[in-house]
């Protein structure tokens, strides 16, 4: 390890970061997405700095495979866009660049300044790498990895937090949760997924500011709940959200049912299924199936003899009530209703076409129709994809 210094106004050398060499940390380039490495090489070849940051580094430090690889750079959004034809600038509160590949998006952000006023939401002021590190939400998300030389750069004593298994806020606690209340949800999610503990100041700030979560848009909260269900730790996260009085403000009905063992048991079963799929490298559990695990223990069918379509409409209605005010896509809720009905022993009956004998020498009308050109297939709603709002994971 060596120390990075900067010179102050009096000409004195001030230590600003600890730099860990290739042999002093567990991260290897073979663990990093090849397209992310290519993006970094291209940005650096144009004279700018670029690093893998955030949740990807946190996961690699914990020995886990990241789902996404985010990049921080000294290049401006316009400079990045000029370098990559497959990119698009998004965001109002803070402009970022999405670089599109076949099956993924690489998110690239410009270093943010820490000299802005936290409470005013003016986040389009760019700064240095050091300043950007102080704008990260929590210490465990503030390491910078340079794949060109294998150096891991730590401006905030984050490595010590990994050793002590603790989560600190880097933004002053007076501002962090009022500036972005979703950080409270993420802090709790990190506690559950890492096994680390929130420092006392963070816990107190969540208790103090928990009502601010009511100001967040339902679309962002819906996205966060979807991530929780897909985390493999949904049971623990929901219980913690309830204990901090956040869940009643996010999803009041779900909060009421958290006291029932049946819902906790179903969430634990979902967690096992998500972790098993992840460990075996299989297909992720779909959104509709995850919703079904969340809802199936509270569905009540007063008349199970109704036609299947009527039952499906009733289950759909009950799921909507349970999730309100969250707004997952309606087609996912419809599919979740079908999962729940199958779990309860109800399945849709398929109509079978009756076959009639065709007199010899006469063509079957079904065969004649089959020769007609079939209409082009129309994409189902399940093919739709959504992207979450940008955040400092």
Secondary-structure topology with pairs:
Elements: E1 2-7, E2 13-20, H1 34-45, E3 50-53, H2 55-61, E4 70-73, H3 77-83, E5 87-90, E6 96-100, E7 105-110, H4 129-134, E8 143-146, E9 151-154, H5 158-164, E10 166-167, H6 176-179, H7 182-194, E11 197-198, H8 200-209, H9 218-229, H10 234-243, H11 247-250, H12 252-257, H13 261-279, H14 287-295, H15 308-323, H16 330-343, H17 365-371
Parallel strand pairs: 4-7, 10-11
Antiparallel strand pairs: 1-2, 2-9, 3-4, 3-8, 5-6, 6-7, 8-9
Helix pairs in contact: 7-9, 7-10, 13-14, 14-16, 15-16
Overview of the molecule:
The chain has 393 residues and is of the alpha+beta class. Helices cover 41% and strands 12% of the residues. The chain is built from 17 helices and 11 strands. The strands form 2 sheets. A 9-stranded mixed sheet has the order 1-2-9-8-3-4-7-6-5. Strands 10-11 form a two-stranded parallel sheet. Helix 7 packs across helix 10 (234-243) and helix 14 (287-295) crosses helix 16. The longest helix is centred in the last third of the chain and has 19 residues, at 261-279.
Shape descriptor reads elongated
Low-confidence spans: pLDDT under 50, at least 5 residues? Answer: 118-122, 365-393
How many separate helices? 17
What is the SS-derived class?
alpha+beta
Question: Could you tell me how far the N terminus lies from the C terminus, measured between alpha carbons in angstroms?
Answer: 26 Å
Portion of residues within helices: 40-55%
Radius of gyration: 25 Å
Total beta strands: 11
Succession of helices and strands = EEHEHEHEEEHEEHEHHEHHHHHHHHHH
Main sheet overview: 9 strands, mixed
Mean pLDDT: 88
Strand content: 5-15%
Biggest β-sheet: strands ordered side by side in the sheet? 1-2-9-8-3-4-7-6-5
């Amino acid at each position: 390890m060596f120390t990075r210094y900067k010179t102050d106004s009096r000409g004195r050398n001030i230590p600003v970061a600890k730099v860990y060499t290739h042999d002093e940390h567990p991260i290897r380039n073979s663990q990093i997405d090849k397209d992310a490495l290519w993006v970094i090489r291209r940005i650096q070849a144009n004279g700018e700095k670029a690093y893998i940051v955030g949740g990807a580094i946190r996961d690699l430090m914990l020995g886990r495979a990241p789902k996404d690889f985010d990049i921080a750079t000294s290049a401006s959004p316009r400079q990045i866009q000029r370098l990559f034809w497959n990119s698009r600038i998004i965001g109002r509160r803070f402009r970022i660049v999405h670089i599109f590949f076949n099956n993924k998006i690489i998110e690239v952000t410009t270093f943010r300044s820490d000299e802005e006023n936290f409470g005013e939401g003016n986040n389009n002021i760019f700064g240095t790498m050091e300043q950007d590190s102080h704008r990260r939400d929590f210490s465990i998300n503030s390491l910078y990895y340079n794949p060109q030389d294998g150096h891991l750069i730590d401006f905030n004593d984050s490595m010590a937090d990994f050793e002590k298994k603790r989560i600190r806020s880097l933004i002053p606690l007076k501002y962090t949760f009022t500036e972005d209340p979703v950080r409270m949800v993420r802090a709790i999610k990190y506690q559950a997924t890492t096994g680390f503990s929130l420092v006392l100041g963070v816990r107190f700030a969540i208790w103090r500011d928990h009502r601010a979560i009511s100001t967040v848009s339902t679309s962002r909260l819906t996205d966060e709940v979807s991530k929780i269900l897909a985390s493999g730790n949904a049971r623990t996260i929901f219980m913690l959200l309830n204990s901090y009085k956040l869940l009643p403000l996010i999803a009041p009905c779900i909060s009421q049912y958290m006291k029932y063992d049946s819902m906790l048991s179903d969430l634990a079963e979902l967690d096992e299924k998500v972790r098993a799929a992840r460990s075996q490298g299989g297909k992720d559990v779909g959104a509709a199936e995850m919703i079904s695990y969340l809802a199936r223990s509270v569905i009540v069918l007063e008349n199970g003899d109704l036609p299947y379509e009527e039952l499906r409409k009733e289950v759909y209605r009950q799921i909507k009530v349970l999730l309100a005010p969250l707004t997952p896509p309606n087609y996912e809720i419809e599919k979740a209703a079908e999962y729940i009905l199958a779990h309860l022993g109800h399945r849709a009956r398929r109509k079978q076409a009756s076959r009639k004998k065709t007199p010899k020498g006469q063509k079957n009308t079904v065969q004649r129709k089959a020769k007609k050109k079939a209409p082009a297939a129309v994409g189902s709603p399940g093919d739709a994809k959504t992207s979450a709002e940008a955040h400092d994971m």
